[in-house]
Predict the 3D structure of the following.
Amino acid sequence: MAQAHLEKRSDLDYVRAHPMATKLPTPPRVGMVSLGCPKNLVDSERILTQLRADGYQMSPDYAGADVVLVNTCGFLDSAKEESLEAIGEAIKENGRVIVTGCMGKEAEAIRTRFPDVLAITGAHEYEQVVEAVHAAAPANLSPYIDLIPDAGLKLTPRHYSYLKISEGCNHRCSFCIIPSLRGDLVSRRPDAILREAEKLVAAGTRELLVISQDTSAYGIDIRKEPRMWKGQEVVPHMTDLARELGKIAPWVRLHYVYPYPHVDQVIPLMAEGLVLPYLDIPFQHAAPSVLRRMKRPGNDAKVLQRIHQWRDICPDIAIRSTFVVGFPGETEEDFEYLLDWLDEAQLDRVGAFRFEPVEGAAANALPDHVPEEVKEERYARIMEKTAAISAAKLAAKVGCTLPVIIDAVDEEGGATGRSQADAPEIDGEVFLRDAGHLSVGDIVKVEIEDADEHDLYGVPVTGNA
Ligand code: SF4
């Protein structure tokens, strides 16, 4: 205890002495009053799940909420009156109120009685109500604690959905503050995850993006608690969960997987087409001494060999990763080791970050911080290297026919989509010509005609993918 206290003190001292240390934003809080039938409750859960994924916290009372949602029932006159009373109470106690649910059909009546209501949306209008919350209390998504990319803050369209399978993390990477904010790993029950996946697919989701702090650790805290799903036991383990999810949604994409040995078991599911041939593995570095100081999990010297084995089993697998440059103590030799490793690994997608001391992270107290100009120079070098690898890999796809999910259709007859190798917001896109007949969420075959460093260009061919 004393030791932990001392470490905290030294971090605080570091932050005080280094005013540049990144301060974390406070998440906005949402209150919810849910009225009516179980279906309305399911809608409320879905809205809150999306808001949690977008970086909001829930408030158990009016006073602590930045905005209050009232999910109304309009089935009977008595239910309508109860809904109006609930709106009135929320206005009186908090003042910032959004109304959703069945009474959304009677927006005029609500506005006449409560002109201060911020927004009114109808039943099952998940996107609109979440959008209204974003407008009323903008989320402060932080790249240091949130799993969804900044750009993901825009409303998640119905055709893809993030599915959170656990919260917290058992690791203690020295640059990360997640465990101190969110605690150790807590896995969700597999049957609850699968039920949510089914609901999402029933509501129009075609691609599930599985997220957590450490997807490969899923279930280690509830390992002995299999649950019944469709008459069979499902073990809380990444491979079993991925297999079941693959039966529910057309596309299932796994994010934040660490290269533990059992990750090898998920590759055959990709080769079978049950799970997308895509692995998002945040390696963060390759040099053994840097990884040791980062205290990274799955720090395996044989990881390059395993990447080659994965490609033998599933040649189409796309591997995405992120790397930190300029971590304290990173020498020029360490950095060159990383560049050589990237040459060998030939990763498909790479994001890079310059090390920043985040308030409260243990790495802040490490010696030998790298000067900013050196970080900049290394960042430019890693981006140049990874862009060249990406360009060569994408050029090799020209002439191939690939399945593409459609994200947007424009008025000029074009469309924008993503291949199986592209997660929304963080990877590349596929720009289509002669695609005005397509709809958002379609999964179609596309002949690739051109490529650049990050994106592909093509034309749909007849027949569904
Ligand atoms: S694995 Fe490391 S970086 Fe990821 S959440 Fe856990 S402590 Fe943070």
